[in-house]
């Protein structure tokens, strides 16, 4: 295959300006036909720009302000529209992340180590071109393969929650929620679902809901994940509170709850949780 | 029921060792007695072994049922005297009875025949047994000191390694090298400056554990090197500022004391913050105290994850405690003004000689 000739679009997310400029320059030399449609400096911008510009390839730095590269990849995969455009191929860029590297190897996602070595980057380009060429000819199954890769990445506990404490301890049994001047103690078994709301978590029970000042990322390691299922990057639901899982024509799954009117959307990353026995 | 005794410090092979040593002591005593007194030497030897081993058995196995200091394997205070005194007295009685039986004499014959001689035996026995049991006690204590020393050395080495790992954080090192690699092609003079700063930072990091104190101006210079390195990486997202009044420049401080605080301010304050922010390192005198502060306008304390910060802060606290005891302190708090972020404050005793 002609390494320099293939047309493709890419987005670079890297918070360090010199390194972003360098990656761009190296890519231009190795793959002149690659069109870098945007270069962003943090995770939220990566999600926004990727969804707006729909590039075929993403270079994501792992450690970025706000949202990590992995979190950005998850958000992009969950919010990617269902119009047949395949998910971008993912290449992670990192200076040093022992755990992440193992996860990348397992999930067969490509990665580049900083400082970037041109020879290694050339290999990555060849690999990405092979993936893109296969998609162009084979079509179907490409998005499933990408989702599978991401699922494997997120399933390995290391990189998904780099900031979370590593000692799990006993799962939380009571949520302490401030309501005015009072602290309400909410038994975790009464919680229908948790929903991320910026830096807070909405805790919804049959009777009412509470706002707790903790991020979902910090809360997740303290929850018994046998009992509670994550169905979206921002939603964790108690499994025995789920009444039905409805699949629409587009394949999107929505959950209804027992005794509660709320409906919860299941992201495509977690869709495999719901299948008949 | 009393709480279970933790007598695991006493190892079974210690009993065997002690027993054999006691047999040795007994043989010596028996020999000395046999040389000094009339009668067949076996008789003295039998008494000596019977009494010595009885005392040893009572004392050594007695340690299994009393509360001992797990470090030394011996009880402390009145318990030790009770155990030793009781073992010697009862051991003497039991031992001489056994000796009487083995030597085919009427039991406790000597008490009746020659109470004075018996008393002198008893006193001699007490003196010798006390000396021997003190020898075992001292030996136990000595072994404890050796064990403690070995553990302390292990801890120190482990801490040293952890410190080095935290200071030469691989993520920081490789990112810095990546930037350097780019600069070499783009801007060689700037690359050279950056390399010099990296060299100064590495040198200071590696020698920080050796020198006990250096002037505050040197501390600010090292922190400055580090922040310049970070500035190449973070660009405008990092705005460092320094405030060191000239009259404080010569104050002695532990080298790289501020480094973990500055690193935390960047790692947990500014790096996760999309817009970055300011980082102010300052020094002032407050009466008898030298006050050093590291302040950032970043994410603030509530989002600070507990794990990464812990070692750095703990290390600063440990160093302060070792060098100044109660006179120094480190506090971490949310910054009080509208800019938000975190304020770390170190208080050291003012050094008048500087």
Please give a structural write-up.
The complex is a heterodimer of chains A (277) and B (354). Chain A is of the alpha/beta class and 277 residues long. Chain A folds into 2 domains: 8-160, 3-Layer(aba) Sandwich (Rossmann fold), CATH 3.40.50; 174-273, Beta Barrel (OB fold (Dihydrolipoamide Acetyltransferase, E2P)). Helix content of chain A is 32%, strand content 30%. Chain A starts with 7 loop residues before the first strand and ends in an 11-residue tail after the last strand. Chain B has 354 residues and is an alpha+beta fold. Chain B folds into 2 domains: 12-154, no CATH class; 170-349, Histidine kinase-like ATPase, C-terminal domain (Heat Shock Protein 90, 2-Layer Sandwich), CATH 3.30.565. Chain B contains 10 helices and 7 strands. Chain B has helices at 12-36, 41-62, 78-102, 109-113, 115-167, 170-186, 188-207, 216-234, 259-270, 306-324; strands spanning 214-215, 238-243, 252-253, 277-286, 289-296, 329-334, 342-349. Chain B has a 5-stranded mixed sheet with strand order 2-4-5-7-6, with helices on one face. In chain B, strands 1-3 form a two-stranded antiparallel sheet. In chain B, β6 (329-334) and β7 (342-349) form a beta hairpin. The model of chain B is unreliable at 303-307 (pLDDT under 50). The chains are: A alpha/beta (277), B alpha+beta (354). Chain A binds chain B through residues 15-19, 21-22, 42, 44, 63, 65-66, 95-97, 113-116, 163-166, 199, 213, 215, 218, and chain B through 170-171, 173-175, 177-183, 186, 232-235, 237, 271-274, 276, 302-303, 305-307.
